[in-house]
Structures are given as C-alpha cells and as structure tokens.
Write a structure and sequence with these properties.
It is a single chain. By secondary structure, the chain is an alpha/beta fold. The protein is built from 17 helices and 19 strands. A five-stranded parallel sheet has the order 3-2-4-1-5, sandwiched between helices. Helix 14 links the parallel strand 16 and strand 17. It starts with a strand and ends in a 5-residue tail after the last helix.
C-alpha cells in the first residue's frame, strides 16, 4: 500500500501552540521532514524509530532543496510510510505548502493539510498588538518581503497597500526593510506611522522593537533583529502598551536547565516555560526495569498479607501497576492494605489507577515519610521503590517496630547528556540556573561534570534543589545550593 503525507503547520514557535491534530500526526508518523522554523522539541512527540529528516529552509540554509524534499516524500510513501512534513507557522502562508501539495497531487500521493497558527498571529498576540481594531484598522494585508527569485520584477503594489489605511504585515522583510520603507513612504504612508518588528515570536528569546516606519530600519540594525522576524505596520501597534502580557511574565529573559528523568517533556519544565523561561533539558538520570520479575511477582501474590504498601516515586507506581496488569490483575489486589505515598505527584500517579493514598506526609522527604507514617509495631509493610532507595527510611521504620520488605521495581542509572552544550551555554552567559529534583540526578550530574573537568563551569549558575536530601547530595559534591 502507498503511504501518506500530512503537511503540518507547527505554529509560530512555542511548541504548545501546535494543534492537537498536528501533535497526533507526529505521534503516528514513520518519518518526519522538518524545517528550521519548527520547534525541535516537537520531535519529542514522535514514536521510537521514526526517521527524522532535517530540511533546513531558513533564508540562508537550504539543507535540502525543494526538489529533493519532494523526492524524499515520494520515495518514503512508496515504501508505505506515514510521512509528516512539518513546517513553521501555517503551511499555506508563505510556506510553500501549496507547492508541495501540488506535487503530491500530481503524483497521486494521498495527503492532507493540518493548518497551524501563522507566525504573525503568534507575534501579534505575544506582543500585545491586535491585528485589527474597530477604532483604527478594519483590514490586514499580508505581504512577503522576499519574493521568488524567478520574478523579473516585484508584483507587490505598495501604493494600493498604503491606501487601504489598515494593518500591514510583512513576512521575511528584515533584509529588504530599507527598500520596503522607501516604497511605502513614496506611496503616501505617513512617516510617523507606528511600526514593530518581532523576532522569534512566542518563544522565550522573543525580541520586540516598537518605533515608527521612518525609523524602523535603523532600529532593526541597532537591536540586531534578524530572520525569523515579522514586521507589523499600522495604528494598531500603539495598542500594545496596555495589553502586552507576555513581557510581564516573571521568568522572561531567564534561561535554565532541568536534570530530571523526563526533562524534555515534564510538568516541571512546562511550568517554568509557562512563566517565560527558556528551559534546556540535560537529563542526568534514566530508569530501566529490573532484569527479573521474580521478586516483584512474589510480593504481588502476597499482597493480602500486608498492612501497608508504600511508594516513594511516580516511577515506582508506574512499574508496580504495569506488572500487576501483566499478571492479569488490577487494583482490587490492594483491597487488604493501606497505601502511602511520599508526595503529591506520586499520589496523583496512583489516582490514575483508581486508588487514593491513605497517607501523604506534610513534608515530602523519606525521613518525614517514615517518621509520621501511622503504623503500629509489628505491622507488615511493603516498600516498592528504586534500587537506590533511602536506607534512612528503612532504619526509622525498623526502629518503630516493623521489618519492612523491599521490592526493587526499577534501577536508576546515569544518563549521558550533552555536556558540551551545557558548557557552551554557561560560557556565553546564557544559563542562569539549573534545577535538581532528586539526589540521584544531582550525583550523576556531578559525576559527568567531573569526567569532563567542567566543575568550575557552574560558578555563574544558581543551583535550585527540590528538598533537603537533594541539597545534601549537591553539597557533598562541593556545590552551593
């Protein structure tokens, strides 16, 4: 069977601005051909084994010429692959989506188009500029500042555009801003007409300049605005003073790193990003299942004999219930025992399986968990955890008259991250903080720093820790929290 091509608009930059349909297409794709302007973290949505092909397609970077992109799509579909052609913004607005669709239609290749939020729509929303306003602008004109090289002369009628007295949006116009301004002024647009240029719209590195049309060329040069950027011209630009919400975010302009297992796609990272920070992922740990299920299976079969089942992480909950289901059992197996979780995240994971925790300590530490757990001397306790679990927790429970049984559900092991990128970002002053959410991540992170002789690199960064155990791990490695 012939494969299919889905041309997907990736949106203006911020990864969460892709549509649900676009996300699902990425999840199902066998191959993805992606452009320079598509957020690379969108590739995290792809399945294991999907072929990822970089096409370039910035104004000065055409890693794959258009003809070769077309041929790649055709060849992949001949093998039966589901192909996603991922393009920045919307594929039908100055994105060559129409040209690629025509090629697919001419070669009888099944395809569909998933629109994306256009870059200028994102730029306007994240700059506080409404593209239309009943008081001053009833029209919007989209125009390219970079016409096809095949044209012998421009087909843009600047005189008519200026006469509309509406909002003018210029895509890819930074390099030719001088000639564009000249054309608009000659067409009668007043020199004091408000103008804005927005680079890397909707991302934490978004740059804005707001000025007038006669000064915008100079301001673009002074502020170093380059591609990708859009230019908005018109009275609507003056509306931004009261409704520019994005630049009020508390972490805007800050850059940080997360080091936890799911660093690339975690709630924690997303929360930091939602407050304006640019966040890089350097996962220092990863988890792997234990080699044998014999120990796990034995205790699952003995669950009815336990008074308490304790979880110290969401990964323990994930692995325990995965094995429970593999044995054709379900949450009813826990009917005889109470369940304790070390923190809210672990308890939330537990609720996915229809079980509410009977106990969560007020302080989310293993020490507090063991000290305040409402147990009686002699009760049977099963602790489902990582092979790197806390010995302090066991000692406290034993001192309280119980002999807990441990089942190691998974191993926490070091994960090699891109330490060269980490060093580079610190060297150029583009990393303000690093976060640690477990002692194992702190220890494995420091091990890799030592191997690369990069310990001194952290002097310019603030280190943030989730709690006392993680803080202690960092201090034992000679770092300040």
């Amino acid at each position: 069977m012939k494969g299919t091509v889905t041309i997907v608009g990736a949106g203006p930059g911020e990864r969460e601005l892709i549509t649900l349909m676009g996300k699902r297409a990425l999840e199902e794709a066998d191959a993805v051909i992606y452009d320079y302007l598509a957020d690379k973290s969108l590739l995290d949505f792809t399945k294991a084994g999907a072929e990822l092909i970089y096409a370039g397609k910035s104004s000065s970077d055409h890693t794959l010429p258009q003809d070769e992109i077309n041929q790649r799509m055709q060849k992949l579909t001949e093998s039966g692959a589901k192909v996603v052609r991922l393009k920045g913004g919307d594929p039908y607005i100055f994105g060559r989506g129409g040209e690629e669709a025509e090629f697919l239609a001419q070669h009888s290749i099944p395809f569909k188009i998933i629109p994306g939020i256009p870059s200028v729509v994102g730029a306007a929303a994240y700059s506080g500029i409404p593209l239309t306003d009943r008081s001053c602008s009833s029209s919007v004109t989209f125009v390219t500042g970079h016409e096809s090289a095949d044209k012998t002369e421009s087909t843009v009628d600047w005189k008519r555009i200026a006469a509309l007295n509406g909002t003018i949006v210029i895509y890819m116009g930074v390099r030719k801003i001088g000639s564009i301004v000249k054309s608009l002024l000659e067409a009668g647009l007043p020199s004091e007409t408000p103008a804005a240029a927005i680079q890397w719209a909707t991302t934490p590195i978004q740059k804005n300049i707001v000025t007038t049309i006669d000064k915008i060329e100079n301001e673009i040069g002074v502020k170093g605005i380059t591609h990708p950027a859009v230019i908005i011209i018109g009275k609507v630009v003056n509306s931004r003073n009261g409704i520019d919400w994005f630049h009020k975010l508390p972490l805007l302009g800050k850059s940080g790193a997360v080091t936890n297992r799911d660093a690339g796609n975690s709630k924690f990272k997303n929360l930091l990003c939602s407050h304006g920070a640019e966040i890089l992922s350097f996962p220092a740990v990863k988890t792997e299942t234990v080699d044998s299920n014999i120990e796990i299976d034995r205790e699952i079969n003995n669950l009815t004999t336990y008074n308490w089942l304790l979880f110290t992480s969401i990964y323990g909950v994930e692995r325990f219930f995965a094995r429970l289901l593999e044995l054709n059992l379900d949450s009813r197996s826990l009917h005889n025992c109470k369940v304790g979780c070390i923190g809210k995240s672990t308890a939330e994971e537990l609720e996915k399986y229809g079980i509410r925790a009977d106990f969560i300590p007020q302080k989310f530490t293993t020490e507090s968990f063991a000290q305040t757990l409402p147990i009686n001397s002699g009760e049977k306790i099963l602790i489902a955890r990582s092979s790197l679990g806390s010995e302090k927790m066991l000692k406290i429970i034993q001192e309280r008259g119980c002999n807990p049984v441990i089942v190691n559900l998974y191993n926490t092991i070091p994960n090699k991250f891109d330490i060269a990128l980490l060093s580079e970002r610190i060297d150029i002053g583009k990393l303000d903080f690093i976060t640690f959410t477990s002692s194992s991540a702190a220890n494995f992170f420091c091990e890799q720093l030592n191997e690369a002789n990069a310990r001194n690199k952290l002097k310019g960064c603030k280190l943030f820790s989730i709690g006392p155990e993680t803080s202690n791990a960092l201090r034992l490695n000679g770092l300040s929290v």
